[in-house]
Amino acid sequence: MDAHDCVQGRCFLGCDNMENKITFTDMAIALAKDYTGIYCINTKDDSYVEYSRESDSKKLERRSEGEDFFADGVKNCKIMVHSEDQEKFNKFLDKEQFMKRISRGKTFNLDYRLIINGKEIYCHLKTVKGVGKDAGLVFVGVSNIDKEKRIEIKQDEERKKFVSIANALAARYELLYYINIKTGEYTTYTASERYEELRSGEHGNDFFSDAKTNCEVTVYHEDLDMVKNYLEKERFLTMIKEDENVSLTYRLVIQGKVQYMNMFAVKTVNNEEHIIIAVSDITAAKKRELEMKEALGNAMSIAIKDQLTGVNSKYAYTRDIAELEFQINENTQVEFGVAICDINGLKQINDTLGHAAGDEYIKEGCMLVCNIFKHSPVFRIGGDEFVVILTNRDYENREELIQKFIEEIYENKKKGKVTISIGLAVFERDKDRIFKDVFERADKEMYKFKEKFKREDI
Fold it and tell me: Which of 283, 308, 355, 434 has its CA 20 to 30 A from that of 383?
C-alpha cells in the first residue's frame, strides 16, 4: 500500500477485496463532511478500501484498497508518522484492542503528526462502527487539522506564558481576592502558610462585609478605622472607578507580631464586574525604610548642627537662606535683620595656646552670641564667624540687643575674655533684591566696628 499526502486530500492507509457497494449515506452520517479521507474496513477479513477527497472537490472517490488494514498501517506508520507519535499510533493499530473497542460500539479519536516533504502535518482520525447493512464495516476518517492545531498550540503557549507571569506575580502576594463588585461574591487565593485557614479557591458571598469582620480580629488597633474606611464599599468603588487602582499600607497582627501590609486593588481587563485585590507583606521593606529615615534623620541632624558649638551649621544656613530668597522673590511680607559676628584674636589664641584653647575660645564667643539673641537662629559659617538672622522679638528689639551686645564686649575686654566684632543690617524691600544685599551691608558694618574696636574707639 502506498502512502498519500494528507494535505493534498490523500491519506495513507490502503484497501482490497471489497466491491464498490459502500452506502455513502451511512458514511456521511458516521463521519464529518470535512474529512479528507475515509477507510472502510471489513472486520471479517481486515480488507479495506480507501476513499479520498481532492482539495477542490466535495466528492469522495475510491482511491486504493488493501488486504490487511492493520499490517499496512504499521508498515506506513514507520514511513510517515512522526517518531514521537508512532507508539500511540501503533497502539491504535493493535487489532485485538481495536476490535474490542469496536465490539463495544465505542468511537476512537487520535491526533498525530505526519512527516510530509520534511514538514510536520497535524492530522486527526476517528473510527465509527457501521450501521444497518454496513454493521460489518468500520469507518476510519482522517482529516487535516494542521492549521487549527497550530492555532491551538500557539494559544496554549500564550496561555502558559500568561499563567507563568501570573504565578510569578502572585508569588509576591500573601493573598489575592477575585471579587464580583456587583454581587460581592469573591474567591480567595493564597500560597502562604500563614493563611492556611483561607486555602486557595475559598469562596465567599460578601467580600466587603467579611473583610470588615476580619479587620476587627487582625488589623492593628491604630489602623483599624483607616482600613474600615478604605473598605467602605461605595467609597471603595468610587475610588477605583476614578483612579483605576487604589493602594493602602496598614498593619496586621499575625502570630502576635506586627506586620506591615500593602493592599492593592485593580480593575480586571475587559471585565467591568470584577476587581482583584492583592495583599503583600512589606514588613522587611518598611523596616528598611524606617531604618533609612532614622539614619537620614541622624545624618541630617549632624549636617545641620555645628559639631563644635551645637549651633546651626553652614549647611543649615544655606538651606534657610534659600527659603528667605524664595520669600523675597514671591514678594511675601518679610521682616528680618542680619547680624554678623566675628571673634577677635582667634589666630593669636591658636598660635600661642594651641587649637584646643582656640576651640574653647570659639565656644565662649558662641555662648555670648546665643545669650544675646535668644529668639533667633545662630549659624557658624566659618572658623570664627557667626551669623544671626534676627526675627520676631529679636528683630523688633534689635537696637537694644546690639547695644547690650556691645556693652558685654566692652566688659569682656576689660576682663581679658572673648571679644567679638558685630555688624547689623535689616532687609529693605525697596532696596534689597536678594539676601546677599542685606548680608553685604551687615558685613561692612562689622568691619567698621572691628576697626573702631582695634582703636578702642567704642
Answer: 434
The single-letter DSSP state of residue 174 is S
Torsion of CA 357, 358, 363, 364, to 10 degrees: 70
Residue 167 forms part of a structural domain: no
Alpha carbon distance 339, 386 (integer Å)? 8
Residue among 357, 371, 369, 379 nearest 420 (CA): 369
pLDDT in tens, 248-273: 898 988 888 888 888 888 887 777 88
Cα 181 from chain centre: 23
Range with the largest mean pLDDT of 27-41, 93-107, 221-235: 221-235
Question: The domain spanning residue 259 has which CATH number?
Answer: 3.30.450
274 and 366 belong to one structural domain: no
CATH number of the structural domain spanning residue 414: 3.30.70.270
Side-by-side strand order, sheet with 378-380: 378-380, 385-390, 337-343, 420-426
Sheet holding 61-66, edge to edge: 61-66, 48-52, 37-42, 137-144, 119-129, 108-116
**Whole-structure pTM over 0.70, yes or no?**
no
Report whether 5 contacts 73 (CB < 8 A).
no
Residue 77: inside a domain, yes or no?
Answer: yes
Whole-number Å distance between alpha carbons of 418 and 408: 10
Q: What is the DSSP string of 52-64?
A: E--TT----EEEE
Cα–Cα distance, 403 to 449 (Å, whole number) = 13
